[in-house]
From TrEMBL:
Gene3D superfamilies: Vaccinia Virus protein VP39 (3.40.50.150). Residues 57-150 form the Methyltransferase domain. Keywords: Methyltransferase, Transferase. InterPro entries: Methyltransf_25, SAM-dependent_MTases_sf. This is Methyltransferase. It holds the Pfam family Methyltransf_25. Residues 1-28 are annotated as: Disordered. One of its GO terms (molecular function) is methyltransferase activity. GO terms for biological process: antibiotic biosynthetic process; methylation.
Amino acid sequence: MTTMPDRNRRTQAAPDTRPPADERPTEDTDLFDYDAELRPHNDHLRAAARIGPRERVLDIGCGTGGTTREAARAAVAGSALGVDVCARMLDRARRLGHDQGLTNITYAQADAQTHRFPPTHFDTCISRFGTMFFADPVAAFTNIGRALRPAARLVLLVWQDRDRNEWATAIRRTLPDPTTAATPPTGGPDAFSLADPTVTERILTAAGFTDVTFTDVHEPVYYGPDSATAFEAVRRLKEFDDRLAGLDPATAEQARTRLRATLAAHETDTGVYFDSHAWLVTAHRP
Ligand SMILES: C[S@@+](CC[C@H](N)C(=O)[O-])C[C@H]1O[C@@H](n2cnc3c(N)ncnc32)[C@H](O)[C@@H]1O
């Protein structure tokens, strides 16, 4: 676990979770950089996944593919398949994989809920915050389970409750009437839909998984080297963008001003950080 930097203390020692140079954007992109945001979380995912050199790995909701590249490096004589619905993220994932000389990765633009994966094919399925958005999670995890060989492992990171995630509550507070923002019920397609271990265990068990475990992951999320960069990053987050789009110009500008102040209050010597709590979820296919 990493201790959060105190707010407003630029001189205090802060964690340095910035991504290595070959994972930093080398081009202008308007995609949110989850690889930079979630780097400390990879240590937990990697340690739990323990990907072996010959494994076939499935990465659900892989985005721009940071975790797929890590899996492919570990599965040096195996392979990694990254699946995402977003073509632009996959374009970037393909480019970074190519630039880093990885030849054992493929990507599919597909909905993991219904995509026809090769049956009983994969040894391990990983996902870093890519499995919370399923309209029918039992059907989705049942579909994913069919792609896994017997005794294969499922290793997921999912967010705990919104109230335990400072990044979500702080950003939401910058929006007008945050309490009236629609909050889908648990189990619906929402970043916090797998936050309740009881609900998630029920979903995974109904989908045919066994040995479901939950481990608290308490790490900071990184939004950029300074508050100006973090401001541009947050504007790429769908929730913030969607909410601003519906506002009159003056109200939207007030929200942006509040966001700038919030980000400035979270700026440290090594960047802008917020606290977060996730669950590392593991399960097996029987
Ligand atoms: C929070 S992002 C995480 C991306 C990536 N796992 C990472 O950590 O960098 C969630 C990702 O899940 C993808 N996603 C959401 N629903 C999906 C679905 N039904 N099938 C495949 N991908 C999905 C989104 O397009 C998005 O890229």
